[in-house]
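Table S7 (text form). Paired inputs.
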Amino acid sequence: MITAIVPIYNERENIEPLIKEIFEVAEAVPISEVIYVDDASTDGSWDELNRLRTQYPPLRIIRHQKNAGQSAALWTGIKAAGNDFIVTLDGDGQNPPADIRLLWEAYNTHKETMPRLAVLGERARRNDNWIRRFSSRFANGLRASLLKDMTKDTGCSLKLFKRRDYLNLPYFDHMHRFLPALLMREGVQLVHVSVSHRPRAYGQSKYGTLDRALVGISDILGVLWLQKRARRAHEGTIYEELN
């Protein structure tokens, strides 16, 4: 079964329509749990989530007392998840939940040949202003050339992976931007799926472009360091796990 993790910060107007879409997808994809992590919102998001809990019993809500950022919110939600599979998506509604089905189908197509597998969405066409598109292309190109993570769009939050693979990763702030490289470091194989991207219906983005780029440079250097010091399993190692 799958747990959907949605981190939010001041997304009150986007909460109800997105939850409705997620539970519509759950009729075709085995999503049995949806966890919203409210990263200390100040716009009434927490009250809105509380209101919707009675309407959607599989909905779980968690709140940070202090704003800690997207990586921390994802980590909180994934640690609390009760299922083996995790799907993540942004709380702003720009990732259509219907595309979760594409990720699940890709997983089932490749799972026999790739026992350790993550499926990553890549936005076919990004519906953002030109500044964010340009900065994203620059950052993705720099990251991919240095980290060799074979991923064109790490900024797409729509991802499917196993919970235990994620919890094996070294945690640091902003780690969500480097999931492909970090997963590969742990021996997880990646499959990329083209997904759609919608304009934001309500509210504004909670992050800028220049500040992310400046932070990203030091983060890339840190991930390069981690890659060079990865645990190396012997080729062909076989292990057995008792359930």
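Next pair, protein 2 of 2.
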Amino acid sequence: MKESKIQNKIRSAYTISLISITMVLLLLGIIGLLILNAGVLSKYVRENISFSVLIHDNIKEPDIKLFKKTLDTQHFVKSTEYINKDDAAKQLQEELGEDFLQTLGYNPLSPTINIYLKYEYATPDSIKKIETWLLSNTEMVSEVAYQHNLVQLINNNIRKISIILFFFAAIFLVISFALLNNTVRLMIYSKRFTINTMKLVGAKNTFIRKPFLISGLIQGFMSSVIALIILSFIVNFYNKQLGEMISLLNLQHLIILYLIITFIGIFLTIISTYFSINKYLRLKTSELYY
């Protein structure tokens, strides 16, 4: 009966430790997912910043399409969209809800090429240089139009959000590491008398450490697997809620995140176990009660 109670206590302590480590690793996984999504969403927003290149009315459509192909080859261009005068008029009519062509008697709009930049070039300084380069082609380009304030506002907000996110991520990482280390220490603390007994009967330190390190490795791996299963459910829920947005996430990045969580779970558990055992290996029997 007494032996059964001891075994139940050991199982209970092991289960609590497993759950605690799993929650810590899950927290790290969520932090990693937030950082990953912040980068993806930042890239998505920047690549949807566009500006319009207005073409002179006297330019023929084949020449405009040739110019569009030239723009497509530029290193800073993600994609382009050509809108002729008639299509531009239709879009404006839909926005205004009235036929302005009938009122004016002519189409005042110019052929336009909308340019979507690669995210690393969607900054105010880069856009200014691109604008200057486009306007240097005076024979083709009459004007470059984009919302200067909106571009500046988007980049400022992305920078602020990134700084705040990484600040809180760093704090949570420190807290997570501390919680995981304390969980392992408490587990070893509950077995300090077992460690001392093994030491008293002449067992070598390496012999004493071995079963604890193996147990820590298994526990770290199991906690990682459980944490990743829960994290996968969160990612799946995120997928269903945001639809196409999840397709922006790089599967390779998710796999790397999963591997990092698994490595952290195993590595930190083993390291914490190793140092915790060393602490009790150095203690005298009389010091175990304090």
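Residues 2-47 form the longest helix (46 residues).
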